[in-house]
Amino acid sequence: MRFWPDESYFDSPKLALTRLKHLLRAKAVLCPGLKVTLVEPDGTTTEWEFADGLRDYLVEATDGYEVLPQSLLSATSMTMSTAWTGRSSGYPKAAKRCWRATLT
Hints:
InterPro entries: HATPase_C_sf, TopoIV_B_Gneg. The protein has about 100 residues and is α+β, with helices and mostly antiparallel strands.
């Protein structure tokens, strides 16, 4: 996809490159295997591609630092749950509300 701002739709044809770089990198992290290339007006090219998404991003971001544990946490699932009692927005005082989420 190529994009050049049209002055008739935008206040200014200038792009906020710092913000744009941040957003494009985030898209590459969140879409494993997506290759994103930014060609700036001066011809500078920046590419982002994270084959394994967030895992690859974290490995790159922590390069040169001591990381504990040495290998990234690897889990196939995690279950979280919580329960609380008390009065809140229309629930009786003794009501008990629970939620549980399983991430796989």
